[in-house]
Write a structure and sequence with these properties.
Distance between the termini: 26 Å
Strand order of the largest sheet: 5-4-1-13-14-15
Helix content: 25-40%
Mean pLDDT: 91
Low-confidence stretches: 1-20
Oligomer: single chain
Largest sheet: 6 strands, parallel
Number of helices: 11
Strand content: 5-15%
Number of strands: 15
Radius of gyration: 21 Å
């Protein structure tokens, strides 16, 4: 795990009591599982209380929140979920779609990158906090030359630089696009401009690497039916690339569920929880014994990823999914909501501990 460059392996702040049962751990999705849009689900609140020790076993079960959401820092997400659900969540328990992208900072620490997605400069600020020291956004490009996307007022608060002489080294989609047209235009401009320098001639080949953080086509919120997610932007970007280049290959690296890197990162955070509870924890022994349960509402992301990671998957019917089980990515267990899922996990954990 150190090769991924995620986090220090030194124990951090104390995140849990020594009475936590480390043989079982849980990763929970947020949207469609704990909350719907900005509304907390009562079952989600009770589920977190159960994991925090309010269960018949009186045991704390270590957990992380594993979401394909993003566009905010891990600390801000932890704070908002804590307020919404009334259970303390720490930044070290949060995995956002772009969290593992911090490992790229060692490669691109001083190289110029285009950061796409999110509101205003939030994702650029997050990237800089991860260690990316030379960041621009589509807003910055339009501020430099409003003709780059003439369908919006020129931004006033943007970084000042001359992109005609300042090449890019990568495009990184951190979060959902808040302006599909502008972000498609600027991203494809960078990807197919000679030397990845804006304003130069277009070439029918990819000039810099592309990284994207969340392939979810849809997600659930307060609206009664699913909404387009970042994956919809990916579909549009690939379609535009294909049309503009005549079918030239577009290579990209995906983060977010169901990609394995996301689950490796979550396991790393669970290791940190174990070390914080007991600095003498033998991680090799922990890995041999630990059973991780994943609770989610999206079969293509949550369940496919958990199954691929060798975790035990639990599908709930409070978000994207509302059937019996998914035919393509079947879960190990299907429940009506997350409280029922956690109850089932606690019983499974008790049985597992008695047998091992």
């Amino acid at each position: 795990m150190r090769a991924l460059g995620f986090l220090s392996t030194r124990p951090g702040r104390r995140l849990a009591q020594p009475s936590m049962r480390m043989s079982t751990a849980v990763a929970l999705d947020i949207d469609g599982v704990l909350v719907r849009g900005k509304r907390a689900l009562d079952e989600g609140r009770r589920a977190l209380q159960m994991l925090s020790g309010a269960n018949r076993l009186r045991r704390r079960i270590p957990f992380v929140l594993l979401t394909n959401g993003g566009g905010v820092s891990e600390a801000d997400k932890a704070s908002s979920i804590s307020r919404l659900l009334g259970v303390e969540i720490r930044p070290e328990q949060v995995v956002l779609a772009h969290s593992p992208m911090r490992a790229l900072a060692s490669t691109y620490s001083q190289k110029h990158v285009l950061v796409v997605g999110g509101q205003q400069n939030r994702c650029a600020d997050i990237a800089q906090a991860y260690g990316f020291g030379n960041v621009s956004t589509p807003d910055d490009v339009v501020a430099w030359n409003p003709a780059a996307w003439p369908f919006m007022p020129p931004p006033t608060a943007a970084r000042s630089r001359d992109y005609a002489s300042d090449p890019f080294h990568a495009v990184m989609v951190f979060h959902d696009s808040f302006d599909f047209g502008r972000d498609l235009q600027v991203a494809t401009d960078v990807l197919r401009s000679a030397g990845a320098t804006l304003g130069r001639e277009f070439v029918n080949r990819q000039t810099v690497p592309l990284y994207m953080s969340n392939a979810d086509l849809v997600f659930s919120n307060d609206y009664p039916r699913p909404r387009f997610g970042q994956g919809a932007y990916h579909v549009c970007l690939r379609a535009m690339w294909d049309a503009l280049t005549g079918g030239a290959p577009l290579e990209y690296t995906l983060f977010g569920k169901p990609n394995k890197v996301q689950y490796q990162y979550a396991e790393h955070l669970l290791d940190q929880l174990a070390l914080a509870a007991d600095p003498n924890t033998d991680l090799a022994q922990l890995h041999a014994r630990r059973r991780i349960f994943a609770i989610g509402d999206n079969p293509a992301a949550d369940i496919a990823g958990a199954n691929g990671a060798g975790w035990t998957s639990v599908l709930v019917r409070t978000g994207v999914f509302d059937g019996v089980n998914d035919a393509t990515h079947p879960a190990h267990q299907v429940t009506d909501h997350v409280e029922e899922a956690v109850s089932w996990i606690i019983e499974a954990a008790a049985a597992y501990d008695s047998e091992n």
